From TrEMBL:
Domain MGAT4 conserved region: 93-299
Species lineage: Eukaryota, Metazoa, Ecdysozoa, Arthropoda, Chelicerata
Record-given protein name: MGAT4 conserved region domain-containing protein
Residues that span the membrane, as ranges: 7-27
Keywords assigned by UniProt, alphabetized: Membrane, Transmembrane, Transmembrane helix
GO MF term list: acetylglucosaminyltransferase activity
CC per GO annotation: endoplasmic reticulum; endoplasmic reticulum-Golgi intermediate compartment; Golgi stack
């Protein structure tokens, strides 16, 4: 009889306390979503710190170069101007002079021929969109609409789209920039959208290029110009943000593309995986993500 009462007591106790215990566990279980956000924030801070260190190193190198020029007995006007131009210009990768010696005689070769910018810096993600003059149809406007529409309002405040007009024909560049400003005035003014084009002096004499890979001269010219276009765009973008994504002017993105790329990139950082490129598209050079601090490896 006593044994039966004892068993009944424990059964009732378990029946009464189980719901409360379950509720307690549900209320106190670890919030994995908050933990994920925290890990992403730490990874983001880590990459932003690396970017700040890179910019500080570049400014220090500019200062050292200027001091050496000032204290040198063989100082020339060009020696004094060149570091100053690099310091004031967003293109501060002086090592390019090793591979493009024609630029040494023209400090202005690094300064954009056209620049439309509200001055946004410290962007979380920079999207580079090169565009050229097309004989049939341009998809640039549709591409920009797509990229912007598939961003959240917060992403529009923290990202940067750089349209690089890779042409030196002044009339075309001016017209294209004006069309972008008119169509996307809100986003140009907010700093989300920038337009930049290179000076003609940035490019070498294309008729004097050495033919390689058995290609005809026209093909060599096309390859060389495309490479230089990417280099200029990367130099311009390097100091603008944390991550850089190479795109084209005729693509379509999916809703949430910024968040998905960001989460994946920060996950690799939080896992301490050493990566140089993250590939989000199988087509050519489209959708390739780099850390902005690593862009100099590709520029030179």
């Amino acid at each position: 009889m006593i044994l039966r009462r004892t068993a009944t007591f424990y059964f009732v106790l378990i029946a009464v306390t189980t719901p409360f215990f379950t509720i307690f566990l549900m209320m106190h279980k670890p919030d994995l979503s908050e933990e994920t956000v925290l890990v992403q924030k730490l990874a983001e801070l880590q990459e932003r710190l690396r970017h700040a260190e890179m910019m500080n190193q570049q400014r220090w190198q500019d200062m050292v170069s200027l001091q050496r020029a000032v204290h040198s007995n063989e100082t020339s006007i060009l020696d004094l101007q060149l570091p100053t131009v690099f310091h004031n210009c967003p293109l501060s990768s002086t090592s390019c002079l090793t591979f493009l010696p024609h630029l040494a005689s023209d400090p202005e070769a690094f300064r954009p021929a056209l620049k439309v910018s509200a001055g946004r810096t410290a962007a979380r993600m920079v999207l580079g969109v090169p565009t050229v003059k097309r004989e049939v149809q341009s998809y640039l406007m549709a591409t920009l609409h797509n990229l912007i529409e598939n961003m959240t309002p917060q992403e529009r405040d923290t990202c940067l789209i750089i349209v690089f007009i890779a042409e030196i024909e002044k009339e075309f560049v001016t017209k294209q920039a004006a069309e972008i400003q008119e169509e996307f005035s809100e986003y140009v003014d907010s700093g989300l959208l920038e337009v930049v084009s290179p000076p003609a002096s940035f490019y070498p004499d294309m008729d004097k290029l050495k033919q390689t890979l058995g290609d005809p001269l026209e093909r060599v010219k096309w390859r060389t110009k495309q490479t230089l276009d990417f280099a200029y765009l990367m130099m311009y973008a390097q100091g603008k943000g944390t991550f850089y994504v190479q795109l084209e002017d005729d693509i379509l993105s999916k809703p949430g593309y910024i968040q998905k790329m960001s989460e994946y990139a920060y996950k690799q950082v939080s896992l301490k995986k050493d990566w140089l490129i993250l590939d989000f598209c199988q087509l050519g050079f489209i959708g390739k993500m780099f850390k902005c601090v690593d862009l100099s490896k590709f520029i030179v």
